[in-house]
Amino acid sequence: MSRPAAPYILASLGLMLVLVVLGLRIGSFATDYTFIGRTLLQYNPADPAQLALVQLRLPRIVMALLAGGGLAVSGYLMQAMVNNALADPYLLGTASGASLGAILCFSLLSNLTVAGIYLPPLAALAGALVTTLLVVALGSQRGQLIPGQLLLAGVAISSLTAALGGLLSFLSSSEGQLRTVVFWAMGSFERAGWDVLPYPAAALALALFLLIFLQKDLNVLLLGEERAQTLGVHVARTRWILVVVAAALTGCVVALCGPVGFVGLMVPHLTRWLLGVTGKANLLFCALLGADFLLGCDLLARLLYPPAGLPVGLITALFGVPFFVYLLRKKRVAL
Amino acid sequence: MIRLLPRISSGLLLLAVLAGCQSNDRPATPAAAEAPQHVTDDLGHQLTIPAHPRRIMSLAASMTEMLYAVADTATIVARTQVCDYPRAVLRKRVINSYPLDLEGLVALHPDVVFTTEGITSQDDIARLEKLGVPVYCQRYTKVTDILRGLNDLGRLLGRPAQAQKLTDSLAAELKTLEQRPRPTATRPRVLAITWQDPIYVYGENTLFTDRIRLAGGQNAVTEHFAQPYPALTREYILKLNPDVLIGGSFGKLDSTFFKTYPELKRIKAYQTRRIYGITGDLMERPSPRVAESVRELQGLLRTP
User: Total structural domains in chain A?
Assistant: First the structure.
């Protein structure tokens, strides 16, 4: 049912290294590897090319890795929690809630920076949290999460928040606002900076640390609620932990990068396809694979449409969906 | 005060031209008696309009300014929700341009509707034409295209002399501005931002390039992008390293744009505090106020 994970983990780390090295070269300043090596050893911020490398390219790469890892793990958790192959990190309405928060900010505030704080990511985080709480409240009864109810509540609340966001965008008088909303909704790492990276990094590290202890329960839960209960898993408690961790991870990523789609749906499937449903290192590998996938997509986005790059959400879908369909046709993807 | 004089004089000139556009010189021949005009607009659409259109309107704020400068203002039957200049237009009935109030527009029975490329969708144009309303669209890539557009409107509306008078005066004014000695030998490279997140700027293929050239500078964006207002990365702007940044006052951008993107404080424009706000309508609209916008830009470039 499961395969040895070590070779896969090593391969994903190797791929990550290759992608990072490639990613360091992509940008407006022409930089060869000698220059990159010199910059990393002796960083001189007075040189604009070195500044771009260390303050812009590197944080962008790290942000893509963290976002990919976070969304992939979050998707894995959601699929386990509702025991449904179609679940993704945005099941709880996180994406549409975050979008509504950001759109509210773009539409209603004339000044987006107050007291030196750029408000859209905070508004997106607040929108994500409020929506998630609402969906969870609607999807639970007497302290127990009901997966079917949660799924429906997620769909309904997502539709409502998307409609509200659409209404605000429609009423927007500025073409610039509209473009910002559209751009935001497709995800981007362009605004990445060292100052915000600790949040998704801490969320992902904590989630992985916590879930190492839950990996076994998670795998059993994937086999079905009744079987999990028979095997001694505290299903209700595990579900609550999964919801909180997934919501925190997704909220963090969406607030900073926008709702990048498809990673959280596809990567967990790929993980189980490669390592099996009950693999002991599934979550770790899922995080690494998600990180690789999203960084790869960002590099492609920047190469295809320089300098700003295509919105990364477009690339994840354009390149991810055909691959996913291929997998589906080639071999039945296990849940 | 001296700097204000040319502005006042050009304002008076424009007023004089606008005054000349009142309904005192309608052609004596009834419209129905003359053959309609078969014309091709700037986008290559062929359309037929009456010899002397009596009911006209525009779907773009800039085009409304063009019509007010050339047409008999009594023939302008409506404005859109964004048309706000000259102030007299505010008295006209409002027809929503986005989403287009098709029924309201058709009910006004316009002889022809004017618009600008990129403002009215091809779909809306096609639907209007299907309903029997011809749509004439203009395109401007250089400042001279605005003057040509004014003359085209003058011809279509039976007022070529008024249009020519206006464009002659604008051309003379623009020439004077262009020929003013520059304070520095090299033209400062100016980056004009239109939006902060993501960072959208005036691209090489916008009217801004020509306006800033006439003002004595040059667009810092020289690379050709497919979109007129491309999104740029911080790294790209660092590499451009513009001498001047337009998009808001130094204080405003320091507390917003440069707070969001502190890495960009390294650019020359920030280091020398050559960061300026500009009148949005003047900069964005291809209108008869083009000389005014060039003068405003020139004033900024000459600020020590």
Answer: 1
Contacts of B259 in chain A (CB under 8 A): 113, 116, 118
Chain B residues with CB inside 8 Å of A55's CB? 263
User: How close, in Å, is residue B235 to chain A by CA atoms?
Assistant: 6
- Asked if the structure places residue A296 within a domain, the reply is yes
**Site from B120, B196, B222, B235 to mutate, A interface, most A CB atoms within 10 angstroms:** B235
Distances (CA, A) of A230 to A196, A225, B242: 43, 9, 68
* Dihedral Cα A105, A108, A114, A120, nearest 10 deg: 10
CB contact under 8 A, B259 and A116: yes
* C-alpha to C-alpha distance for B153 and B170, rounded to whole angstroms: 16
Task: For chain A, list residues whose CB is within 8 angstroms of any CB belonging to chain B.
Answer: 27-29, 48, 51-52, 55-57, 111-113, 116, 118, 120, 173, 176, 179-180, 183, 188, 190-191, 307-309
Q: Among A7-11, A210-214, B241-245, B296-300, which stretch is predicted with the lowest mean pLDDT?
A: A210-214
The shortest C-alpha distance from B90 to chain A (Å) reads 18
The whole domain housing A241 covers: 63-330
For residue A75, tell me if it sits in a domain: yes
CA distance B169 to chain A (A): 33
Give B260's contacts in chain A (Cβ within 8 Å).
113, 118, 191
Q: Say yes or no for a CB contact (<8 Å) between A308 and B196.
A: no
Contact B256 A113 (CB under 8 A): yes
More confident of the two residues B296 and A96: B296
Q: At what angle do helices A215-222 and A198-212 cross, to 10 degrees?
A: 80
What three-state secondary structure class fits B154? helix
pLDDT value, residue B232:
94
Can you give the pLDDT at residue A268? 92
Q: How far apart are CA A292 and CA A290, in angstroms?
A: 5
Structurally, at CATH architecture level, domain B189-301 sits in 3-Layer(aba) Sandwich (3.40)
Instruction: Check residue B221 and give its pLDDT.
Output: 97
Shortest Cα distance, chain B CAs vs residue A241, angstroms: 35
List per-block mean pLDDT (blocks of 10 residues) for chain A, which spans 335 residues: 84 97 93 93 93 94 97 91 83 87 85 79 89 90 86 93 89 73 85 90 92 85 83 87 89 90 91 87 94 96 88 89 79 51
Fold (CATH) for B31-173 = Rossmann fold (3.40.50)
Beta strands in chain B (DSSP E): 37-40, 46-49, 56-58, 76-79, 93-94, 112-116, 135-138, 189-195, 199-201, 218-219, 231-232, 244-246, 275-276
Task: Kindly state whether residue A226 falls inside one of the protein's structural domains.
Answer: yes
In this complex, do B195 and A48 lie within 8 Å of one another by their Cβ atoms? no
Decide if A251 contacts A207 (C-beta within 8 A): no
Q: Where are the domains of chain B?
A: 31-173, 189-301
The verdict on residue A150 lying in a domain is yes
Q: Contact B266/A307, CB-based, under 8 Å?
A: no
Cα(A257)–Cα(A295) distance, rounded to whole angstroms?
13
Region B178-200: mean pLDDT is: 92
- The reported pTM is 0.82
What are the φ/ψ torsions at residue B247 (nearest 5 degrees)? 160, -5
SS3 B21: coil
CA distance B117 to chain A (A): 15
Q: Which domain CATH number covers A226?
A: 1.10.3470.10
> How high is the pLDDT of residue A293?
96
For residues B150-177, average pLDDT: 97
Q: What pLDDT was estimated at residue A1?
A: 54
Cβ contacts (< 8 Å) between A173 and chain B: which residues? 82
